Automatic annotation (TrEMBL):
Membrane topology designation: Multi-pass membrane protein
Name of this protein: V-type ATPase subunit-containing protein
One of the record's GO molecular function terms: proton-transporting ATPase activity, rotational mechanism
GO biological process assignments: vacuolar acidification
One cellular component (GO) term of this entry: proton-transporting V-type ATPase, V0 domain
InterPro entries: V-ATPase_116kDa_su (IPR002490)
Cell compartments where the protein resides: Membrane
Main location: membrane
Family to which this protein belongs: Belongs to the V-ATPase 116 kDa subunit family.
Keywords on record: Ion transport, Membrane, Transmembrane, Transmembrane helix, Transport
Residues annotated as transmembrane: 317-345, 357-381, 405-426, 438-457, 463-482, 503-526, 538-564
Length: 600
């Protein structure tokens, strides 16, 4: 459910801004809108300071190398920060040097290992040595009065040296390209590379030893973040009069908290105007749902979608259908049991995961077990033991089961899209547009029978043509209010394409069958491969490795299928039929400790 918002316009004396903002931050209810670009009054310095501190914090590792123990030092925190930054700069310099050395090694390796000082001594005696490379197809050049020494050759080029008492002319060199002589030998470059890499390891160990101070540094970063946020809001307040004695702030707060806002106005002596959102306002979105629905918020946060304030929150439908889609796309009860076991083990580990992720995975794992049991799919095993075989449903496993599952996919798709239009019927009623939504429900079920006929070669009931005609008429007549025809006439032009898209959307749910069948086929293929391999002890170990790697790969592919297909059917097909554009912005009230929430 999307929580109703109220618009707040706050007026206070410019001299009282700090006291007012202190009160609002303590209240933690107002999503502040900046009325002007915040600048000045130490804001730039505070942002630079925050970046400086965050870089130091990020440089300290969360996972320590083996044998390294982090210690909490007694040094002042500023000394800790300076020491970390010295190590950061040192590491940057070492990485830059290493990159240059590796490039130089690659450049001079074809020339071989020699001392450049010897070449300089020969030059002083009038003997000149120059290095070149030439295309392999041209062969090694022979130049009069010069000794040609082949140094190396690779797939494309020959590297060679010319030794003589004069400089070779451009005409005699042909297509040869000179290679600049190194300043140090190849062995010296390689020695330096090894030293720099060792120095980087020592640098990383010193940083790891400083990780004991990471909680202290995190507190400093948080304080710096709060200062930046405070200054952004303070400097973003508009000055309401020419004398700059009055300051204005606007924002949004949940309608249910109006009494608290008014009490704060009295306590901190500021004027306020509370109003309903205007037609052109875009309030932030705050979603609150029952506890059993909240796990789906994790998915919405991960993929970065949020309904707009005036749009619809379909979180319960999203959770129910995504769980069903997950089960059908993975399709294996054995994998569901494996997920359940991993979740039980993960609960005992100190993992940082989004709130609601574990409950969401519990639901999806149990749904996968249920679907896999009904279809008789356990790790892709062909012959199931009696108890597992008894759980199968004949309609999903007997002859013709593939067509039955495809039919079920079309039915799920039509039902899913029908829910979207029924939701719109409730939203629009008594506006005549609700009749257009009834028309879309009619056409959706006609498209279900059309998919059944075209894909599964069943008979198409001819009376449904009348249903299609009635549905199309309702859509055309009531999809756009008369007063908006001049602006929204394009919807009528696009209607034939939208009708075809309705058919395509219903058919697209067959991906639930296709991906699930692919998961089963891959599992069965690896099982067969392992069975053919296992002929003895060592081949049995190889077969076990094949099973482990094969099923791991299959699970990863199934997870990708859930992200690509399961999420898409909700956030695109269903959302499109619901009229949802995902144009919301998150409700983010001005309060303390908000950095942790923003970065989570």
């Amino acid at each position: 459910m999307i929580v109703g918002m109220r618009k707040l316009t706050l007026l206070c004396r410019a001299a009282d801004r700090d006291a007012v903002l202190f009160g609002l931050r303590g209240l933690g209810l107002v999503h502040v809108e900046q009325l002007r670009q915040p600048v000045g009054d130490g804001l730039d310095e505070a942002k630079q300071r925050l970046t400086y501190l965050r870089t130091a914090l990020d440089a300290l590792p969360d996972v320590l190398p083996e044998g390294v123990q982090a210690r909490v030092s007694e040094d002042p925190i500023e000394e800790v920060i300076e020491h970390v930054w010295r190590l950061v700069h040192e590491a940057d310099d070492l990485r830059d040097e290493l990159a240059g050395l590796v490039q130089e090694e690659k450049r001079i390796a074809p020339l071989g290992d020699f001392d450049p000082q010897v070449v300089a001594e020969l030059a002083a005696k009038g003997i000149h040595v120059r290095c070149f490379h030439t295309p392999l197809r041209r062969g090694l050049p022979r130049i009069e009065d010069f000794i040609t020494l082949e140094l190396s050759r690779d797939r494309d080029r020959i590297h060679f040296a010319l030794v003589g008492r004069t400089e070779p002319s451009e005409d005699t060199l042909g297509q040869a390209t000179e290679v600049r002589l190194p300043k140090q030998s190849l062995s010296a470059v390689r020695f330096r590379i090894a030293w720099v890499r060792d120095a980087l390891e020592r640098n990383a160990l010193r940083l790891a030893e400083r990780s004991g101070d990471k909680p202290r540094l995190a507190d400093v970063v948080h304080s710096a973040f709060e200062k930046v946020r405070y200054l952004e809001i303070r400097q973003g307040m508009d000055l309401a009069d020419a004398g700059q004695e009055l300051a204005v702030l606007t924002g949004w707060f949940p309608a249910r908290n109006e009494a608290q806002i008014r009490a704060a106005a009295e306590a901190f002596s500021f004027g306020l105007l509370v109003s309903e959102p205007g037609p052109h306002d875009e309030p932030p979105t705050l979603i609150e749902n029952p506890r059993w629905v909240r796990p789906i918020h994790t998915v919405m946060d991960m993929i970065g979608v949020l309904p707009g304030y005036r749009e619809t929150d379909f979180s319960p439908i999203f959770l129910l259908f995504l769980s069903l889609f997950f089960a059908m796309l993975v399709g294996d009860a054995g994998y569901g049991l494996l997920f359940t076991g991993l979740l039980l083990a993960a609960r005992k580990l100190p993992l940082k995961v989004p709130q609601g992720l574990f409950p969401l995975l519990w639901v999806m794992s149990l749904c996968t077990i249920a679907w896999g049991a009904l279809t008789g799919t356990w790790f892709g095993i062909a012959r199931l033991p009696g108890p597992l075989a008894d759980l199968r449903v004949d309609w999903l496993t007997s002859e013709g089961a593939e067509q039955n599952i495809m039919l079920l996919c079309f039915f799920i798709g039509a039902t899913h899209l029908t829910i979207a239009h029924l939701w719109n019927v409730i939203r629009f009623f008594p506006d005549p547009r609700f009749l257009a939504q009834i028309g879309w429900i009619c056409t959706t079920w006609v498209m279900f029978y059309a998919a059944r006929a075209f894909v599964l070669l069943h008979d198409f009931p001819s009376p449904l043509l009348y249903v299609l005609a009635v549905g199309a008429a309702l859509i055309v007549l009531f999809m756009t209010p008369v007063k908006r025809l001049k602006e929204d006439w394009i919807g009528h032009v696009m209607f034939p394409l939208n009708l075809i898209g309705n058919f395509v959307d219903v058919v697209s749910y067959v991906r639930l069958f296709a991906v699930g069948a692919a998961t089963l086929a891959v599992a069965s293929a690896f099982n067969a491969m392992a069975a053919e391999t296992a002929q003895g002890l060592f081949t049995g170990l190889a077969a076990a490795l094949i099973l482990f790697l094969g099923h791991t790969l299959n699970i990863l592919l199934a997870m990708m299928g859930v992200l690509v297909h399961g999420v898409r059917l909700n956030t695109l097909e269903f959302a499109t039929h619901l009229g949802l554009q995902w144009k919301g912005r998150k409700y983010s009230p001005f309060r303390r400790r908000e950095m942790d929430e923003d970065e989570a």
